[in-house]
Amino acid sequence: MRSTARQLLRLLPAVAIAAVAAGCAGTTAPSPTAFSPSPTTSSPSPTASEGPAAPAGKKIGACRTQDMSAVVAMQPSEGGSTSTAMVQLTNDGGSVCEVDGWASFSLVNALGEVVEVKTEKVEQPGAPTPTTLKAGSSAWAGIKWESCDKGSSDCPAGNSLQFSLEADTDGKPAELEGFPAPEKSNITMGSLRIGSLQPIRQGVVAW
Asked: What does pTM read for this prediction?
């Protein structure tokens, strides 16, 4: 009996040490927290309204007579005293320009003098359409006039037409197609109506 007690006493320190070791082994040391740096806050990409304002585009200037050419082509006659012609107005300059409104046309006699004709600008085939013309591109219009008796003293007669985009009667000669030969001075205009400038030719004489 005493022998057994002594054996137990010898075992107690070893058991105690084992228990302490087991307790230490069961305690999990806290894992070091991984370093997670805060994400760098990037500036938002600027939108069109937030970014610097885009420079305003260069304003397109009005076309000038000196930079333009005009071809006036007689249209088939439907009979009566009314004549119709289609106008092709072309930008011959090196810069982009804009037309808006009407071109002016004047009857000119053999002496190069402007002959006074009762003239009206009409919204035909509709209101004027602002048209940007690159070099070599064209705008279109129609003109109509009432012929008169050349032998009458009050009948304006001439042999050519001038055109202008400015508010005056000075202009440049227009190229005429299908008109009477200039030497005959057989262009008579009791009255003249000028249609509005349009970006396409379809319909410009259909009035």
From this structure: 0.71
